[in-house]
Design brief:
By secondary structure, the protein is α/β, with parallel strands linked by helices. The protein has a domain of about 190 residues: Rossmann fold. It is built from 13 helices and eleven strands. The strands form two sheets. It has a six-stranded mixed beta sheet, sandwiched between helices. Strand 1, helix 3 and strand 2 form a beta-alpha-beta unit. The N terminus is likely disordered.
Length: about 375
């Protein structure tokens, strides 16, 4: 999600993108020490010692898909599932993975890609309902904006699953746990600990986000509360953006924020795509190396920037495993199985830095995977050999 999508006038379509892109950001003042070798120089701070232990644990590669409760039986084949997709790269990665999972399960799978108008996403959900599928998958868009459509799906006994939204579940949605509040909160805490440790308790953060999307606020709130807890002397300045600012006004916003407050040494972004054009803008303003950059739900470009040393830390967001987790919850729903184990299990994740990037599992296109053997792990849970 975390890369999480964007907002404002294109609320509905944007929302779908948002949840997926929602997630974490981290970076540090002078070039930070990264990886497990980063040491807390001021060991007098109990908060920093605590944060250091959390960072060391978060740098390790995931050893599995986290979810380990098998289905009661092999799920039924022949199901017809529709995803209402937002045309954002990370969302496409998730749904490409969902295509693969659907083939394994013997399901018919379709994607509907809406336009960018304020009503287009809701209209696309209405279109999906008219096709009478066995289930509908949505993401990103706040459920309150889809109340009419969700009520209609419920009336027709069409189960709906949502991811990357957060907040309270709608009675017409059987699950909205994936990439939800708990997951995004975890990313916020991970990044805050990293920033505190790698600035040696001297972080002054500019945190860029889009307030119109509540799921991003979960990251912001947990980043701020965790940083305050482990590093009381650290500061955070929240800088709101609009969806239309992505790659246009946001780079200049970052530059002006840093210029107005020379103490800022970290630029944190609530999803990877918010960094579009930022590095070039900082270089153009003579601020190259002035701030460290990071976040949650990194794009391929963010991970390349880690390798090049122009960005500093991101939390791993496995869009591919998220796609298979959507299929897994649908399979449990079709089976009538208990959804609680799958709803409670978070996605495999970790902190990614230049130091550990070479050992991190990525797909052939450069997106974060986290655990390379995920397909076989799901087949085992689904009792498919």
């Amino acid at each position: 999600m975390r890369t999480t999508p964007r907002r404002t006038v294109v609320v509905a379509a944007v929302a779908a993108t948002t949840a997926l892109f929602a997630a974490a950001c981290g970076s540090s003042g002078s070039t930070p020490k990264s990886g497990a070798s980063a040491a807390v120089q001021d060991t007098g701070s109990a908060g920093l010692v605590q944060a250091k232990a959390a960072v060391d644990a978060s740098l390790k590669n995931p050893s599995g898909i986290v979810l380990d409760t098998p289905l009661s039986k092999t799920p039924p084949t022949g199901k017809y599932v529709i995803t209402v997709e937002t045309p954002v790269p990370v969302t496409k990665v998730r749904d490409d993975a969902l295509v693969e999972a659907a083939k394994v399960l013997g399901w018919r799978y379709e994607r509907i890609v809406p336009g960018s108008g304020p009503e287009d996403y809701a209209n696309a959900v209405t279109q999906a309902i008219s096709k009478h599928p066995d289930a509908i998958h949505i993401s990103g868009t706040p459920l309150a904006l889809l109340k009419s459509q969700l009520d209609q799906a419920k009336a027709q006994n069409i189960p709906v699953i949502s991811d990357s939204v957060g907040g309270a579940a709608d009675t017409a949605v059987f699950s909205n746990s994936l990439d939800g509040d708990e997951q995004v909160a975890t990313w916020g805490k991970m990044v805050a600990n990293y920033v505190a440790v790698n600035s040696n308790g001297k972080a002054n953060v500019a945190l860029f986000t889009i307030k119109a999307f509540p799921i991003l606020g979960v990251f912001v709130d947990n980043f701020k509360s965790t940083l305050s807890s482990v590093c009381p002397s650290c500061t955070v300045k929240e800088v709101n953006q609009q969806l239309a600012d992505l790659g246009t006004k946001t780079p200049s916003s970052v530059v002006s924020t840093v210029q107005q407050d020379p103490k800022i040494n970290w630029a944190i972004f609530s999803f990877g795509d918010l960094t579009l054009g930022v590095d070039a803008a900082l270089k153009g303003a003579g601020l190259n190396g002035k701030v460290n950059i990071g976040g949650e739900t990194p794009s391929q470009a963010n991970l390349t920037a880690l390798k090049d040393g122009t960005e500093n830390v991101w939390t791993g967001f496995s869009a591919s495993i998220l796609g298979w987790r959507v299929a897994d919850l649908l399979a449990r729903q079709f089976n009538g199985d208990d959804l609680a184990p799958a709803s409670k299990a978070l996605l495999p994740t970790q902190l990614i830095t230049k130091d550990n990037l070479s050992s991190v599992s990525l797909d052939s296109t450069g997106y974060y995977v986290g655990f390379a053997g995920y397909q076989d792990a799901f087949k085992k849970l689904w009792q498919i050999q």
